[in-house]
Every structure is written in C-alpha cells, then in structure tokens.
Write the structure tokens for this entry.
Amino acid sequence: MTTIRFFQLCLAVSFMVGCADCSVILRNRNGKINFPSAEECNNDVMLLNTISWEIPLKDWEIAYLQFAEILFSCAKANLMLPKANGKLISVCKNTKPVDFPNILFEKSVVITLQRFTKNCSEAKISFVYNRIGFRLTTTNTHVQTGEKVQFVATLTGASGLNLGCKVLYNFGKTIHLSTKTLKAERSFRYPGKYSFKGQCDINKRGDLVTTKEVVVYVENALSASKLQISHQKSSHTYPASTELIFHHKYYFPISYALMLNDVIITELQTTQTFDEKKISSIETAKFEMNSTMQRLVGPGIHNVTLLLQNHVSSVTFLTPVTFNEEIKHLKVMTKQYVGLQPNSFIISATASQGAPVNLSIDIISTQTRLTVYKTSTFCSRDCHSMVVEATLFRAGMYKVEATAKNKISLMTSNTTFEALPQIFDVYITSRGFNFETRREVFVFISGDLGKYEMNLTIGENTAKNSTLTISKSEYEHEGLPNLPFDAKPYKLIKDESIFNEARQVTVLIRNDKQTFRFVGNVPKALQTSCLESVRIRDGKVGGGLDEPLKVVEELVLSVDLNFICVRELFSVDYKWRAYRVTSKVDIPKTGDEVQLNMSSVEPELLIKANALLPGLYVIKVYANITSDDYHMSLAKGDDFTLVEIPKRKLNFLIKGGNVVEAGLNTTVLKFESSIDFTKHEGNIKRDWFCAVTQEDLPMTKEIGKIQRKGSCFDWQTLWVSGNDTLEISRNKLIPSEHYYVRLIISGPHYDATFADQKIIVKSKPAPVVSLRCWSNCEKLFSSLKPIILQLECDDCIRHSWILSLKSGQQLSLCKNQRFCKLNKSILDKVKTSSNVTGTGYNIDGDKASATLILAPPIPPSGGICTVHPRSGIAYVTKFNVTCHGYAQDRVPLKYKFFTAEKDQNNLLQHGCDPNLNDVTFPSKTIFYDVMIWVEICGPRQACIVKNLSVSLTKNHHDNTDVISDLFNAISSQNLQQTAQLMLPMSSANILERFQIKKVYQRVAKYPIKTLMSVKQLADVVRHLVDGFGVINNYHVRLIAKIMDRIEHTVRNPSTSDDDDDVIRSIAASCIFVTSHLMQFSDDISFKIKESSRMTRLGKLLMASLIPGEDTMTFQTKSVKGKFLKLNNDVINPLNGSSSFRLPNIQTLNNEVINVEVFTYDSSINFNTRTHKVDQVTSVSMTTGWQNEIPISRNEAKNQTIGFPLPAQPGKGNITMRVESECDVAGGHSKAAGWALFDWMLYKRDGNDLFLTIHVENMDQKIRNCTMSLQTTDQGSFKLKKEFHEKGSFTENKSRKFYAGKRLHIL
C-alpha cells in the first residue's frame, strides 16, 4: 500500500494559483492518507485551510474507508463525510479509531478536512481507502419458466481485506463468494419477479458493507394450444357501446392489444401480479367498443386481431365480430330483357344503409306463380350495392323478389322483367385476296342458344336475309384471320363480295321483341400490295389469342412484315394500341382503350410492368404501307396479342449488406433502400421496423405499430419511421448483441414486400464497413452478369472476401482488394442461397464485416434447342433454329440468338419468339463451322445458354436474292431481319454503290429504344462499314448521326436489361466504326468531335471493369490488342507517371494508338461514399493527328508503355505514429497517439505535399506542440523544418496542423 503525501504538492500548486485550499483526486485502487506527515510538520510552512480527498466511483464500485487516527478538537478542525441521504457527517472531537466505524460509500465520495489552527500537531488525520469492484449480472432479465438463467458475481480490489460476500435468492437460498468470480445457474417453475442480492460484510461480523441486486422476470411461454382462446360471440348493434369478451387459460404475464381491420383500437391491458391459485383457471379479457371506435371501422363483419404477448412470447388470435346496422330503403333492379341459359344476367340490389346483409333472390314465373330460380349472396360490410348472377331456361315474364335481412332488421323489394334469347356482341372483319377485288367478310356473333332472323347488308348491295341458329356454346374454327379475342364462343357467318371501295357492313338480328344492330367497315382490296401478313413476335403459334403473356418486369414486342414481292421504295407507319378487357373472349372496344405511356408509333413496343394498371390487355398493332414516290397507301395489316399485368412487386435490398457488423465506436446506425423511388409511379409507402430478434419482425406494418415485445426501444412499437432513409442513435436502443431492421414497401397496385438487415454489435471498437454493389444488385441475381461489390471503409488498410456456399465450402476471393468481382464461373457454383462476406481491417487490427446473401433465380429448364439443317452452303442455305419445352408459368421467356464473326458476337434476334427462321451465314474458308448460341432467360435474367453449330461449304457464286429481302426489311424498319441479312451480305460485298447509299439512308432512321436494339444497330453499322466501306462525306455524316443516337440510348436506356457484355460489345463496335470515320475525313473539326466520341466510348468500354482486373480484347480496323483498367495502388503518386498495358498489339497499317488518362468523378462508377477516386484509363484509337502522346505501332507492340500523369490531386491514408512535445498546463509533457495525414500532389517545380495532422483524445489542455512523424511502413517522412502551432485542445476533440512545406522521402 502506498502512503501518499499531498501537502507539498498542494502547497506548491496553491502558491501558483494563489489560494490556501487544495482538492486531490485519489485514482489508485487503494492507499493510505497521513495528513500532515511528520516531515511536513517539521517544515516551517503554512498549512492549508481546507483540503479535500475525492474518490471517484463507477456505478459498480464501492469505496471502503478505515480511519486509523482522528486527532483534533472542534475548535481546531472539522472532518466532513457524506451520508447516504446526501447530508454531511461532521466529526470534530478526539476519537479513537476503534470507536469510529469503518465506512462504505456506494457513490463518489469527497472527504473534507477544515483546519482552524496553524499548529501542525493540533489537527491530524490518518485513513486507509480501498476502491472495491462488486458486480452482479445475469445473462437475461426476461426468461421462460423452466429456462436456466445464469448469474455472475464478481469481486475485485478486495485483496487484504477480511471481506465476506454472498449471493442471496429471495426464495431462501444463499451462496458464499469464496473466489473473485462466482457463476451459478437457476431455473424457475413459476412465473414472477425473482431477485438476486449480493451482500458483503466486514470481518464477517454481519456489519453490512454493500448490497447489489439484479432482478429476473420469469414469464410463461404463450402458445395458442396452451391458451385455448375463445371469443364470446354476441349480437352488437351499431353504433351503440358494447364489449368484446375473450376467454383463455390463465398464464402470467399477458399484455393485450386489439385491432379491427388493421386499425388499432385498444392497447396493452397488462395483468399485474402472478397468482398461483389461478393456475388452470379461465381468464376473461373485456374490451369496450364505444361508438367512436365503431365508427372508425363502420358497420358489418370485421376481422378482429387479438395480440397476447409478454417479453418472451406472443400469440395472435383472429376472429370475426359483427356490428349490425338496420337495413333501409331496399331496391332491386334488372334489365327489361334478359338472356337464357347457359348465359347469365345480373340482378342488383341497393340499400341506403345496413350491414351485414343476407340477400336472397327468388325468381317467380308470372304465369305459373312458381319459383323457378333461387339464389343468394352475403355482404359483410359496405352493402349499399349488391349484385347476384341468375340464369333461366325458358322465355317468359318473371318477377324478382329480393329479401335483405340481418340480426336486427328485414326488408323486401320486387320488380318484373322478360326473358328472351339475347345477342351480346358482334365482330365484323374481312380478308382480301391479292390482285383481286373479291373480299371475304367474317361476322362473329355471340348470343344465347336459339333461332333469330338475320339481315346482312354490305355497302349498297341488297340485304341478305337468313335464319340464324346458335346451337352450341363453343365452336371450332379454322382458317381465321387475326382476331383480338378468343373466337370459340362465337358463331361465324361468312360472306364473299366483290367491291373496289371500302364498304360498311350492317348486321340486324331479331328475336320476338328486340332488334340488335351492329355496324362495321371493311377496306377495299389493294391490288398493288406485296404484304402477306403482319405478325407480332410474341412466341405464340397459330391465329387467335392464346393464354396471356405475364409481364413480370418488362416485355418487348416487335413486328414482322412478310412480303411476297419486292418494292424498294415504300415506308411503314406503325400504331400500337392497348385495350383493357376482363377475359380473353371479350371483344376490345374503343371505350376499353388505355393510353400507352411509351412510344406507340414504332415497330418495337416496350411494355413495363409499372406502366399499366394490373389487369388483362389486348395489344394491337396496325401497319400501314405507303409508297415513297406517290405517298399513297399500298396495304394495311394488323395483329394482336394478349398480355397480363400482375400486381407489381418491388425487388430491393437494404444498402450495406444483409448482415453488417458495427463497433462500439459507431454512434448512429444508418439505413437506406437500394430502390430508387422516383422511378416508380404511385404513392409508394415505406415503413421501417427494428427488433432485437428476427422472429419479432412484423409481416404486416399494422402489427408492427403496436407496442410489443422485441422492440429495439424496450416495449415500444417496432415501427420506427416512414421516410426514405432511417437513422437510429445507438444511445436510444436497448442493449443487445444484434438488431434486425425490416423495410416494408407497399402502395396502390403493389404487393407489399420487405427486405431485412441484421446489425451485429461488436464488444469493442471496429472500422465502419458497408457493402456497395455496382452490378447485378437485385435480390435475385443474374447468373450471366458479374456481381461487382465494393467494401466501403475509410479506415481499412486490408480487405478479405469469403464466399460461403450452402454445402459448407468456403472460397477465398479477391485477395486484399476493395473491389470484388464475382464472374460467371464463380456464380455458377452458387446453386442455392449463399453468402459473400467482405471484411475490413484497420491499423490497430480491429476488423468488421458485411455480408450479402446471394439468392440465385431458377433458370429455365426442361427444353431443347435444335438447328436444321445441320450443314449447307454459305450465303444460300436457310437455317432454322427452334427451341421448345421451356414454358414457365405464362411468364414470357426471352430468347437471344447469337453468332460470332471476326471476334465479335452478332445478335441476330431477341424477344419472346423461340424460333430463328431462314437465316444464312457467311463462310471464311471453303469448309467452315459457324457457332450459334441461344441465351434463354426467365425473370431476373435467370439464363441458360445452348450452344449449336452448322457446317458450311463456300459457294463460288454469291446469292443475290437476299437483296430483295434486305430492302423489304429496311423499308419496314425491321431491325432484327436487317441484322440477320447484313451478316452474310457484308462478307459477300454484293451491293451496288447506289444501293449502299439507300441502305445508309434507311438505317439512319431506325428507331431504337432498348439496349438489344442498340446492340443490333451497332452490329449492322459495323457490318456496313467493314463490308462496304465509307464511300463519301454524306455517308460519314449519316453514320455520325447514328453514333450520336446509339450513345444517347446507351446512356439513357429504356430497359433494365443493362448487360455489361452487351454494353462493351456496343462500345467496341462504335469505336470500330468511329475509327473508320476519322481515317476517311480530313475535316479538323470533325476529327476533334470524333476524338471526343472516342474518349466517351473508351470510358463506356471500361465502365464494367474494376481496377486490377484481367485485360479484355479490343480491335479496330488495323489494331488488335488487349487493355485493362489500372488499380490506383499501381500508380506511384510521387513520380507523376504510370504505365498502361497493351500486350499483344498487332497493327496492320500506319495507325497509331493515342493513350489518354482519365480520373472518374463522382458521377462515374467506383467512387466511394468518401468521394475518393481511382486513377483509371481509357484508350482512343485514332490516326494520331495532333494528339499529345501518339504511340507508333513499333513502340506499342508487345511492351508496356509509360506516360506522364496529368496534374491531378491525389489523396492517401498512410497511418503514422505521432510523437509530440507540448506545453501542458504550464508544464512540459510528452504524449503519443495515432494520426492520419492526407496529401495532395501538385505538378510544379517539385512534389509539394500538403499535410494535415489530427491530434485526438488529449486529456489536458495543450498549447505549443512540435510533431515528428514516423510511418508504419518501411518509409518515413519528415518536415524540412519543424513547424509550430498554437491553440488549445479539450478532451476528445481534435485540431488540424497544417504544413505546406516540402516533405522528403528518407
């Protein structure tokens, strides 16, 4: 034990501060105070008037004082000690140590001695103090009956004291603490409040020294089977006050919450104390329902949710409850004439008030007065209008009697009507015969079974009278024209007429009392028409409407026009329309048309799931062919398809990862959804919830808004916020090792969906980490696209990545990289849900992780793809690729057909059509194999690839018949057919100069909306340039405009199909084309413009690569090579230069390579949330004119090229050890701590470094400091001359020191 003499120190300080008082803080665990000491009494000094000793205590500490001597009189001195009640004990008489008790303090204590004499021997004091730690904790404060609970008692700082401690249960058991730590377990049979008390006494005399207590609440685990909940049903009259009564077996404790139709009515009626006598008895819970509460939900039958819960369990009980309202003013209605079986008719009933309502309908023959039909319906609430369907077998007069009743009222109403065979709808269309005036007229009739008189009039021709007999409910039809409905329920009447002009068709159909009139128009036959058919490429086979296509994400529909003759000069006007129908047999009418919120006058239609309300739609396309020379209509055609828009479901995650670790240094938890709400129409609602267990997270947002167990805020609501983002302060959360956050998104026309994130709280400080996803970031990822992840961490100096498969296998990835790219080869291993975890380590060795759960979607399966024939003649043989057997719950699959030519993949066709028909291929040699692959994708780009091949023999004579097909394709703006035809034609070089001009003119006008269309257009232009060249400046301007449109569409895609490989392919094709344009043109301004395009395309080409990734291939007209994006760690920030790899360069002409270096800004990928940037590179392939750093082919071949970096600011995070010498409160002291410096590099006369030093966690105020710096790596820095900074620092604050001097590397 240390004897402490404070007098001299305090005296010295008192002279400095000019006072005669002193206060000393005793921070040691124990010590002895002698005041004044003999040495101090022998000195001739003035003693202090007042001296205080403070012993600071934490909440789990106690101070134990033993007074050895108290020697003074009341006139000479006074000793003051605090009592438990906060008052002071004043001791001012001679007291022997044995008479003065040992004292215990459970809060920080101040011992004060006031001296009234200068005589040293007249006022003396001596005492010993001990700071004792005594903790009593438990593993859980709320447990189930029968569950073991562990408590831990810990005693520290009591060495040398005869201190006896024990733990007492309030149920009569005692355990003595014989060691420093005691652990014990206990389970409880009955619920209730149980306390553990820890007591310590001195010398085991029973004198109490301290008491600590911890309370455990034991609760029954609730379950539906144990509670046996029942609802005492009774009749309630709306809106009179009443009670809802529930019964259940007695368990303790239980809190209640009651909801009606998701409206919270009553919350938290809590039982108070456990009563053992009530075990197995029946409890009654009553809830008052006053008129105000009832008006919140209205009259009728409502769903009641009773939530019974405590801290360890919860049970939900569902039951209906009825509030009866009197029925008033009932009225029944139907049409004057109705149809006959098997068709039904509608009877409606209205009431001004009343619910619930049991409505019964009796149909009585007025002739026989017998009831011929009975039906009924029940309305639970909102019963102002009710509808029933009825059917009759015979014609005649009838009366409807309607009876509406509930528990408290009854009303009747009646009306009369007549039943007759009815005609419901008629659809009129026609089909012409080419080069003739003969037209075939089709009349489709839907009606009741029976006989009718029919009159058919076409134009001014004489009416044709006949008897119409409908004898079947369904008909089998053959050879029908395209129809926008299912024709099976329709009777078909055919007629042939000869006319030169359009005609009006009038159909009159009569029964005994009614006449039904329908009018339609048929066009004249166009004798000059080459159009054979119009077909929507929807993957369906045959005419009429099949099952609807379900639009899960988006659907692209395109049009094929089939011609039987060649006409070079014509144009096609397209018009898409959408009609909402209730079933596929409904004929779409003008009143059913809905506005398409997308381009509807192009050959390609993009339908997004959120563009139309959920429902069934007939999509119709009209094609009008006009001549370019006379601007007259040559032919018209149309086609239909049926699509279904299901209720929307958003696919999203909470940013940062599914599981994120947070250290004790994290004070605020931040959450954000991965979805961009601005892209979704409608009132989308966000609801954030927080729970300490995943089981407590609510499935519905209403349950989450009840005060309940499991809340992060201790029996509050789980609901936290309704904002786009969420921030939670750690100090507001109850202590826990983990938290769960759930975001539920809902809205009109949207299914409620949710995403979860688990926060694991570490027991020590850790770096702040977060996962950021750059590619393939949906909840269900695509196996064809790489997943690119970034571990965001400001303080991390090392990173690791682990992929944990469901089988238990763990794969180490992306060693010590901030970015991690999971390529297809890795994703193919992820067959079921797996985890990828990124871990960051700081300079102190602390680490934290973030985990993303990878959920692979299920790709299509069970089908096959074949090609026929397997061999043929190049440019001549027409091959057909067919896929079938991949149907997937009416969800249209996407088929993409590719082939490779000149190291570029060519997209021949894309869409819902599983067949690629009549395609020819070029041949490089006499015998040549062409590879074909089909990519078949379901929702979320869950894809499989089928590989096929055909063998070709080269023909000595090119096939010129494809020229007519090409001009029909480009005139109808059929990009898919153009892409298929241009592939062989560019190799055959069979177009004349004037034909090439027409092709360029037509292709320049192609509409492009989707990324796949951009890909095909880029392929077509590349084939044109490669096969036929750039003939004149007119062609150059046309191609440049096409490049502008392609760039714009790629930057602003209409679809979500943002495949990185496709974007790279588009960029590579465009760079190839642009390099040709720059070689052809001598216009300086044009070269400057196209150089800028090269820069943009280069960035686009590199955008999907991550720093340090493998190289990728690039090719222009005369250069073929590979290049990569540089990692920022590769670039030496101090020498101002770096290297760019161009391995395996092969040049053919005198083309040179111009290298440019770009720094991506915050709008480009791979910036972090701290706005740091990576040095990345992009390549421009030009002719080398006027560029700063041209590289000739000799220099570029098979070597690494070095080039100077532009003047760019840099930033680093090297950690250094800071040694400081500072003036501390007038004295001189040394302190050490960690600091970070940021540097910025300027290219002037030398490498000047701007240095920022942060000094943190200084306990004392400091004034002048001199810093010397030592890095943690092998190098070190020092300032050319020392710098000084004046200022003050308070605890836990920081201040920056600035040094603009040049640093030298040692």
